[in-house]
Amino acid sequence: MMENNFEVLMDTIIHVSEVNENLQDIIQDLSKRGISHDRTKFQDPEYSMFCSTRPEFKKANFGTPEYEAVTKKAQVAVNHHYKHNRHHTGFHENGVKDMNLMDLLEMLADWKAASRRSPDLTFEDSLPRAFKKYNMDEALQQAIRNTIKYLEW
Question: Which of 54, 83, 110, 113 is deepest in the core (most CB within 10 A)?
Fold first, then answer.
């Protein structure tokens, strides 16, 4: 019996260690994403286009006709940005359906940060607009809401 207990203990220690290693892979990936996030915004065509449209973006709430008009005005920069940043649905041929969990986590962090620039729309209020725009199913919407609640955002 003693030998069996030792085997269970060793197996459990190995399992816990492997889970930790796997979580470290996730942490390292997210850390790299944090460091390199949106670097293309410092390059043209994005930088100059976003500089020229910044005053208009500051007045427009996400998902409004005003926001869409400014986005259209900056379309060359937006297209370039999406083409080079996989945390955007526009990077992927099938939008959110082609994204992985790491992309989704970076996207969610991006949404939260971007919501601070909104003139009068809260992060929470922007979510239904984003869910609709990106055609997110109910299960994904709920997972995002659960994550926001868990992180106390």
Answer: 110
